[in-house]
Design goal:
By secondary structure, the protein is mostly helical. It is built from nine helices and two strands. A two-stranded antiparallel sheet has the order 1-2. A hairpin with a 4-residue loop joins β1 and β2. The mean pLDDT is about 80.
Length: about 260
């Protein structure tokens, strides 16, 4: 007696769901670190896709799906998943950008460490800000928002209907520009304090010509910046909370534009 667990149609549907979900999981900042092995990421994407498989109403005709057509649909689903993941990553890029700017202003230009997420050198403060943003992302259950968006995405944009002729590309460009602004806003108090500190040190160097302002500026700027970062941590968390809650609307808006 033979027992068929999956029909050909069901296997094709699962493969299509897996393509979109795997691309999103691969782009999530929590799973892009080197500590998250490829086996774990693939297993997570396969498990989530298996859970969504009986919930989603997707049907295909196996007779009309040639290997070339199926490959094209899977490719489109992967590109769509990467676009959604890129939209999520923009918030973390903004956090890293702000940390990089402040790090150079503090004097941490040479104090770089290896970023395990992107496998490249990253300023120390940018790495700290990035880890802080990931923790806020998990504490606020923003990953649940991503799963809900993925479920709704199949109703808004069925598999194989990806189209870049709409307003999606200008929207992504606009969103990228907004993230640069967000990066500066997150560290604006620190930048303002460092500008005032440099201004005062400049005046002191004019008044006291024997004062070693260059050597004095390092401990002052670092201490002042760390104090301001600690005092503004709650403000940064509130701003990130707003961005993560707005994430669902941005992702759904992007799906409607594709």
């Amino acid at each position: 007696m033979e027992i068929d667990l999956f029909s050909i149609e069901q296997f094709y549907v699962y493969l299509i769901i897996l393509a979109r979900m795997a691309a999103v999981v691969a782009a999530l900042p929590v799973f892009t670190a080197s500590e998250a092995s490829m086996r774990m990421r693939v297993g997570l994407a396969a498990a989530v896709s298996l859970l969504l498989f009986p919930v989603l109403d997707i049907s295909v005709d196996p007779a009309s799906l040639t290997p070339a057509i199926l490959g094209l649909i899977v490719l489109r689903e992967t590109v769509l998943g990467l676009l959604l993941g890129f939209t999520i990553q923009l918030i973390f890029f903004a956090v890293q950008f702000g940390g990089t700017v402040v790090g150079y202003q503090m004097g941490f230009a040479a104090a770089n460490i290896l970023d395990p997420q992107n496998q490249e050198q990253m300023p120390l403060l940018a790495q700290f800000q990035n880890v802080f943003a990931i923790l806020v992302f998990l504490v606020l259950n923003a990953h649940h928002v991503v799963i809900r968006v993925m479920i709704r995405s199949y109703d808004i944009l069925p598999p194989g209907n990806l189209d870049f002729s709409g307003r999606a590309v200008p929207f992504l460009m606009e969103l990228t520009g907004q993230m640069f602004v967000l990066g500066v806003q997150l560290v604006a108090p620190v930048i303002a304090a460092l500008i005032v500190s440099q201004f005062i040190l400049g005046i002191m160097s004019r008044v006291f010509s024997q004062l070693q302002v260059f050597l004095l500026s390092f401990p002052i700027n670092i201490s002042l910046a760390l104090i301001i970062i600690g005092l503004s941590a709650e403000m940064i968390m509130l701003m990130l909370e707003y961005e993560f809650f707005e994430l669902q609307e941005r992702l759904l808006r992007l799906l409607r534009m594709l």
